[in-house]
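Entry, Tuesday afternoon. Goal for today is a structural model of the target with zinc ion bound, before we commit to ordering more compound. Inputs were pasted exactly as handed over by J.K., no edits. I checked the ligand SMILES twice against the vendor sheet because last time a stereocentre got dropped in transcription.
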Amino acid sequence: MLNFHEKPLDTQTEPSSASVTTILSAKTQVPLDCDHCGIEQNHTIEYLRQLPKLNCAHCEDERTFSEFELGILENALKEMGFYLAS
Ligand SMILES: [Zn+2]
């Protein structure tokens, strides 16, 4: 499952500005848990946008990253004030 909300990105925002938007590179890595063994692996947003098959390096579980999950991820980023560069 997507576990992104528990791992805020290590990006500094400026608290002095009224409305802060941080532009995130598509090369930013986000951690995703393996559904099977729960171990996290990092994938770049750019890679996840291709809706790839994700292979766990630990248990070799394979699954497809869905458009639905991509939507959740991008929404979560938006709510945290991150704007994704395309
Ligand atoms: Zn696994």
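The radius of gyration is 14 Å.
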